[in-house]
Write a structure and sequence with these properties.
This protein is α+β, with helices and mostly antiparallel strands. It is built from 17 helices and 13 strands. The chain folds into 2 domains: 2-91 and 258-300, Periplasmic binding protein-like II (D-Maltodextrin-Binding Protein, domain 2, 3-Layer(aba) Sandwich); 94-255 and 327-367, D-Maltodextrin-Binding Protein, domain 2.
């Protein structure tokens, strides 16, 4: 769209595998040969997070046009020492994506509303030759995302400000009953036969193939992928869901935040052109175009949207009522905390780690 409106500009996409992106980005930034515009993450807790990248001198400050579109409650995740280093792209809901067509074929036409109904759905799916959940056990980003999605109902539904309390040393991961329950849930899901066979060694292709081919019902992936899967797997219906709460009657809860951003690399050869693109993207009509193409939601005003008939219909009340918080690791002290969680869950799946091991490692990483 931008190139159609600006024929003098040519934009070339340099796609990278998601499970290698963080390391690739840092390598390119250190070498000074990164793309002019790079995808970054809000806050501090990932390898691509823009605050530590800005502190390291890898990113270019952006102008006031971008600063104005950063939601006020997210300023600390995009602004460092009064300067903005990332332009939020869209609001991302994090939970599960469900193939409803596969769910109906597996005898799970209604998405589970609590823990007991989830285990029943797993049994039903297994009897139908499917898995209710598909997880990329060999891909740390996905194992970490699974743990956080479960923690939405076990930790953050009760205390949305838990991360701030951890930053103030009022709580710890190892001392949190909610985090213990979240990791125990992963072991329980495996024992209940909820995961696909060979989950420990599965890559991201297990998710795309499992959902698109209907051999699995749901996966822990960001909401924008629902629209992409629907385009690739014609005739199948995909929707966004929140992970079920532990008990019947507990409120549904999830994550929705401006997780991703576009930043200008310090070594960019076309800084003015890159900033011009971000200025264009900051316009409301263009921001909506981006969100629609990406399958996400606009940066602001989500509570006022009519989401009926969209992939977001199952979580519309969550978004309307504000029953969500931002993605936790955006606020964690450094990327090593999420690494400890993600790699730890891999060990949990293979039986090499315990929940206690993982939570102690997360605390140690936080304090390093």
């Amino acid at each position: 769209v931008y190139m159609q409106e600006h024929p003098e500009v040519k934009i070339t996409l340099n796609a990278q595998p998601n499970d290698q992106y963080d390391q690739t980005l840092r390598t390119q930034l250190q070498a000074g040969n990164a793309a002019d515009l790079v995808e970054t993450a809000a806050g501090t807790g990932q390898g691509r997070s823009l605050i530590p990248l800005a502190k390291a001198g890898f990113l270019e400050p952006l102008n006031d046009t971008v600063t104005k579109i950063v939601p006020s409650n997210d300023k600390s995740q995009f602004v460092l020492n009064g300067k903005t280093y990332g332009s939020p792209t869209d609001l991302t809901f994090i939970g599960l994506i469900e193939n409803q067509t596969a769910g109906a074929a597996a005898g799970a036409s209604t998405f589970p509303a609590d823990w007991d109904s989830l285990k029943a759905a797993c049994t039903s799916a297994k009897s139908a030759g499917k898995s209710f959940l598909v997880v990329s056990g060999a891909a740390a980003p996905n194992t970490g995302l699974m743990a956080m999605a479960i923690a939405a109902t076990r930790v953050y539904a009760e205390d949305p400000k838990w991360d701030k309390e951890r930053a103030a040393n009022k709580v710890t991961f190892a001392g949190s009953d909610g985090w213990k329950a979240s990791l125990k849930a992963i072991t329980d899901l495996k024992d209940a036969g909820c995961f696909q066979s060979g989950v420990e060694g599965a890559g991201f292709d297990a998710i795309t193939n499992g959902l698109a081919q209907g051999t699995s019902v749901a996966a822990f992936v960001p909401a924008p992928a629902a629209s992409q899967l629907a385009s690739a797997a014609k005739g199948q219906k995909f929707v966004v869901q929140a992970f079920p709460p532990a008990n019947s009657g507990d409120k549904a809860f999830g994550y929705a935040s401006n997780n991703y951003a576009l930043s200008i690399s310090k070594g960019a050869k076309n800084k003015a052109a890159a900033q011009a693109f971000l200025d264009w993207l900051a316009q409301p009509e263009n921001a909506k175009k981006f969100a629609d193409l990406d399958g996400g939601l606009p940066v602001s005003g989500v509570a006022d949207l009519d989401l009926s008939g969209t992939v977001y219909e199952p979580v519309a009340d969550i978004l309307k009522n504000g029953d969500y918080t931002g993605l936790p690791n955006n606020n964690w002290s450094n990327a090593a905390v999420y690494d400890a969680l993600a790699s730890g869950v891999q060990g949990l799946l293979t039986g090499q780690k315990t929940a206690g091991d993982i939570l102690k490692a997360m605390d140690a990483a936080w304090d390093q």
